[in-house]
Amino acid sequence: MNRRDMLKYSMLSIAAATTLNASEGSTSVQSQTVGASGVSSAKKGPKIVIIGGGWGGLTVAKNLKKKDKNFDVLVIEKNNMFMSCPFSNTYLGKLEGVNLGTFIHDYNKAVLSNGYSMLNATVTGIDRGKKVVHTSSGDVPYDVLVLAPGIDYNYEGQFPNWSKEKIAEIKNLAPAALIPGSEHIALERMLADMDDGDVVITKPAGKYRCPPAPFERACMIAAYMKKEGINGKVIILNENDKIAKGKAFKEAWKELYGDKIVHLENCKITDVDTKNKTIHFEQTIKPKDEMDDPKVIKKSHKYEVLNLIPHNKANSVVEMAGIETTKDGFGKVVMNGCSFQTKTDPNIYAVGDVVGHAIPPSGQTAIWAGKQCAEEIAHKLHGKSYTLPVKNQTVKAGNVCYSMVGDKPEEGIMVTHDFSWTGEIIKAKGNVPKGPNGKFRSAKIAKATRNWYDGAMRDLF
Ligand SMILES: Cc1cc2nc3c(=O)[nH]c(=O)nc-3n(C[C@H](O)[C@H](O)[C@H](O)COP(=O)(O)OP(=O)(O)OC[C@H]3O[C@@H](n4cnc5c(N)ncnc54)[C@H](O)[C@@H]3O)c2cc1C
């Protein structure tokens, strides 16, 4: 986003806020939002409010306006600019032509191109009875509500003995960089400023955003350290033994980075000493003989840069809605069968990483789900029934997720997921293909990674 765009967007936000303050005694922001046609968009058709201007939310908004331009579509987003998590690891790897501008996009552009409205505010509550969303800028009524708020970190659940101050310190000094915002930039600065030494990445157990992301990040940081001649290793402390695209990553680690990337399984983080830059953990070694007990070894490791990725949970907006969620540590939205409507409330839908389907939490899935969700809502508002246009209850490659693993030459790996509707929820089956040379990674996939990302940004903006 250039300076002019930043100014444009803040002017619109200020104008919206001003209109809000001018509304006599009322805190409602109905019909007073930043619209494509200017500051105020008068209410036309049914009002669809989308919480979250990320991959899922922007897709729903765009596709609803495509379906019916009379829909009054409003996105509520707390950040004043879009930052992409997908492809952001290449920024840490300092790949050619990649810079901050690659990830930051102008919401104003999306609003102007796609015809929906946007409110730059933080959602603080949802009153399902009154069909109203409470925000930092006032109340917003809705006819249909879409939850697309993404994830939150769960430091409190993972480290119950840490104080609020300690958590704040860890967020600053060991940024997780899994949520759009400044953490990605902070992590990049730490790597740019680092001396010789190790980079430690922790990979959480349980459901978390983009399962391959920590492993791709390890590759990109190792590539950067190699390029810059930084002596040290990238240590992945994995809370369990699961590695998304495991065989493909292991092939790349071994063949491209030798012993520069070290992956340690079953490591439970116990503490971090930020003063001495040391992480403490317990590693469980499984016995060869099943009859023996596992061994738990206490370990410590000194780091130069720490990327502590904590347990993930559904964004607190889901809890605000008071709808049924899964009983696991993440708290996914329980869906109404194989649809994007919630089970609890027919007027509330969900897309993106919070959905309760067994599909991967990825940007590409969020785009796919966002399109399906828009179809469903449009049919409902037009009084029609909707069935998914699928062949044999399967969608081929509903999700394609790339990971960049090498630089100079750039090489990537990929996974595709077919989605199916044969059960109570939508399910996915993954496949990590090998190329004709018998390797998982290739320059062709690296090129496809860049093309995919550029295409997705063109689609959203
Ligand atoms: C490092 C990394 C690499 C990745 N690589 C890939 C990849 O290669 N391919 C891929 O497909 N996916 C990838 N992903 C995953 C992808 O980023 C997510 O799956 C996707 O962003 C999910 O979309 P979403 O709409 O659910 O959430 P988000 O895109 O996070 O959007 C949620 C939005 O809601 C807003 N919000 C939250 N709370 C509030 C509130 N209270 N009030 C107002 N607004 C709020 C947030 O600010 C945010 O903008 C990657 C993720 C990471 C971290």
Q: What is the element layout, followed by pairings?
A:
Elements: H1 3-22, E1 47-51, H2 55-67, E2 72-77, E3 82-83, H3 89-92, E4 104-105, H4 107-114, E5 117-120, E6 123-127, E7 132-135, E8 138-141, E9 144-147, E10 151-153, H5 155-158, H6 164-173, H7 183-193, E11 199-203, H8 213-228, E12 234-238, H9 246-257, E13 261-264, E14 267-273, E15 278-285, E16 295-302, E17 305-308, E18 312-314, H10 316-320, E19 348-350, H11 363-381, E20 394-406, E21 411-420, E22 427-431, H12 443-460
Parallel strand pairs: 1-2, 1-9, 2-5, 9-19, 11-12, 11-17, 12-13
Antiparallel strand pairs: 3-4, 6-7, 7-8, 10-18, 14-15, 15-16, 20-21, 21-22
The structure holds flavin-adenine dinucleotide.
Q: State Rg.
A: 23 Å
List the uncertain runs: 1-27, 35-42
Instruction: Name the beta content range.
Output: 15-25%
Sheet/helix structural class? alpha/beta
CATH fold call of the largest domain: FAD/NAD(P)-binding domain
Q: What is the highest CATH level, the class of the largest domain?
A: Alpha Beta
Give the CA-CA distance, first to last residue.
12 Å
What is the number of E strands? 22
The CATH level-2 architecture of the largest domain is identified as 3-Layer(bba) Sandwich
Largest sheet: 5 strands, parallel
- Overall geometric form: globular
Any idea what the CATH superfamily of the largest domain is called? FAD/NAD(P)-binding domain
Total domain modules: 2
Bound ions, cofactors and other small molecules, one mention each: flavin-adenine dinucleotide
Discrete helix count = 12
Strand order of the largest sheet: 5-2-1-9-19
